[in-house]
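Notebook entry, structure prediction.
Reason for the run: the old model in the group folder had no record of what sequence produced it. Starting over properly, with the input documented here first.
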Amino acid sequence: MPTHILAIDQGTTSTRAIVFDHAGSVVATGQREHRQIFPRAGWVEHDPMEIWHNTREVIGVALGKANITRHEIAAVGITNQRETAVVWDKNTGKPVYNAIVWQDTRTQDFVDRLAADGGTDRFAQDVGLPLATYFAGTKIAWILENVDGAREKAERGDLLFGTTDTWVLWNLTGGKHDGVHATDVTNASRTLFMDLKTLDWRDDILEEFGVPRSMLPQIRSSSEVYGTAESHSLLRETPIAGILGDQQAATFGQAAFGAGESKNTYGTGNFVIVNTGEEIVHSANGLITTLAYRLGDEAPRYALEGSIAVTGSLVQWLRDNLGLISDAREVEKLAASVDDNGGAYIVPAFSGLFAPYWRPDARGAIVGLTRFVNKAHLARAALESTAYQTCDVLEAVEQDTGTRLAELRVDGGMTANALLMQFQADVLGIPVVRPTVTETTALGAAYAAGLAVGFWKDRDELRANWQEGARWEPTSDRDDVERLYRTWKKAVTRTFDWVED
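New structure, fully documented this time:
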């Protein structure tokens, strides 16, 4: 009888395969980074073939480290960087262009053209999203407009689109030899094309974008058997049974299944998700409405989300672009060597500001500089910006829902930084809680797959797996914190209106 679940986590900077046991504990991990391709300012790409090659490799590594074979795997779950768009030829299996990453801003002109008739909220009542370069739909349109021969192939029905979950699923289940072309509701809700109520593609919106419906994957639930791994795979005949976009997967892994439950993931960017149950809540304060999950034939669960573009990647920028540190883990020690930020604030609007501002014209700024400020102050300001941006989003959540969070559940790589977590608790004025198992994104995908095949019985069993690993209580004086936060708000306004064209 199978004793494990395998999760494939296809993220922004790397692909991982993680083996979990029935208690939701990590047994083994395989991980490989892929290249970040920057053809010009504002453009971010990945090589889909490199991602697929890495996916196969990390599956082998994880199985090898766990010392198990496919016979011990009950099912496979997939989680992924969400809005990143891949377009490929279904006959050859080859992409027609690199994957255009969620951070990419090249489609701003296209967004402006569509927004000229009805504004950026033109489709928001139907799809839950503002018109923005962030979402996958504009990226597909760009490929069709700018890649030689792409539109003709698309009109003939030869091209397929998918976010990276779909790309991995299609290849894992056979690729050009009858691979399954599907996605789940959470990823579909990040395209600008899916109706939140019907959970189907909107033909009128597709027409506005110039995207043939034949390119789009079938929309399925987040927990069901989509197909089995093809015969040449190490996982051959193993059911692929769960798909969740990375932030929804992290929410699921945190066992935040019900209305009012939430989490914040600290990764390349930060993503706050608050479950609203079966109710579709439209934000008046800069949040987006998205799918939280759908299990089989159950009613879908919805959520409000605050997406922050740059948090962990700001630490990478300090390392790679400025050379202030040689390893990302050094930032905490450097920041802790000073008592405060020295009056300096970093607003990392590298590709504009996402929630709750949605200002594509903004660009990054370091403000409050004096001769006193040194690299340690900048390291501290970088960490503090993550906490401030989270506070901005949770203010919007409170305004939209009328309720204040009692505590914030957190996950992701940056939660290992105790200085940041304590400052986060101080700024918010509520406890910050990290679970024992911090691999919540992969765990959520594993949970979805395991539920589909009966490896876990129900959500109550998954709740019982959740255990508190660390807690940070607010300790700072509220007057001091509020003064710091007011100055942050002032710093944010200094980034506006920078890009004129």
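Summary: The chain has a mean pLDDT of 93.
The old model has been moved to the deprecated folder.
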